[in-house]
Amino acid sequence: MKRSKRIISTAILSALSLNVAAADVSFYGKANVSVQSSDDGQGSYSEMKSNASRIGFKGTHTLSNELEVIYQAEFQVDLDGDGDTFSQRNQYIGLEGSFGQVLFGKNDTVFKQAQGKIDLFNDLNGDIKVLWKGENRMSDSITYKSPSFSGVQLAFTYVLEDSLDKDDAYSVAVSYGDKNLKKANVYAAIAIDSEMKGYDAVRATIQGKVAGFTLGAMAQSQEKVDGSAEMTGYLVSAKYGMYNWTFKGQLQAADHDGGDDNSGISIGADYTLSKSTKLYSFYTTYDMDSNSDQDYLGLGIDYKF
């Protein structure tokens, strides 16, 4: 009897080992917390912010020599304790092969992804989503990305209407190069949103390395699907690394047709402690025509695992 149990246990463990060997799973996360002085236009106050801190797991499972399952489940974690402990971020399952990859679930649109790494104050108060539309993470979405052809990649997001009172929406993007600027010194992209959260938009992005600097520029136009609320805007960013320091700056503008001309300026410095950890400081100020001006000054820590 004992021998039979040992045989069964060995068989179960062997099966589990084979399944694990066939899958590639990684657990990851980021803790980003800042202490800052904030002025939203009504006066200055101190606060602690959890800047899109997150945990998740992702991986692949090989089905054949030419086909893999790919998946991800990521959750935002509120480390300062002011809101919900967990909320959804990108969560999907899909297939990848010689045809490219196709993903089903909740995911950043390809329009949003087309920005690459040009937003140097992403997840902080200087995030480009403050002045522009298009930074969307959509449920009920299907995303397709083609293989890279000499550095050129096509991508498409289709969002199902999911109810009678909504319309389907889509994003299309064409990109060249590597958004991390590791395989190539230049990244460029053009993207279009159609009826995405009630807006149509066009975005063009370019970023590259020049004489030790990483320079980027982006232009965007947007309007509501009914043709109102037209806006044109631009963004320029630059960063420079020296020893463990990275110095960075960013300017963004949003000019509304017949309305406000808003702008934001951010400057900052990062100090790298290790490959996983950095300390950072930033100052962001917004000049708003009709609304109150805003100012933010902060210090923070960013840890990735």
What's the CATH H-level homologous superfamily? Porin
CATH architecture: Beta Barrel
Q: Sheet with the most strands? A: 16 strands, antiparallel, barrel
Low-confidence stretches: 4-18
Proportion of beta-strand residues: over 45%
Q: Find the structural class using helix and strand composition.
A: mainly beta
- Cα distance, first to last residue? 46 Å
The helix content is under 10%
Q: How many separate domains make up the residues? A: 1
CATH topology: Porin
Radius of gyration: 22 Å
Query: What's the number of helices?
Result: 2
Helix/strand order, N-terminal first: HEEEEEEHEEEEEEEEEEE
Extended strand count: 17
Overall geometric form: globular
CATH class: Mainly Beta
Strands of the largest sheet, in order across it? 1-3-4-5-6-7-8-9-10-11-12-13-14-15-16-17
The mean pLDDT is 92
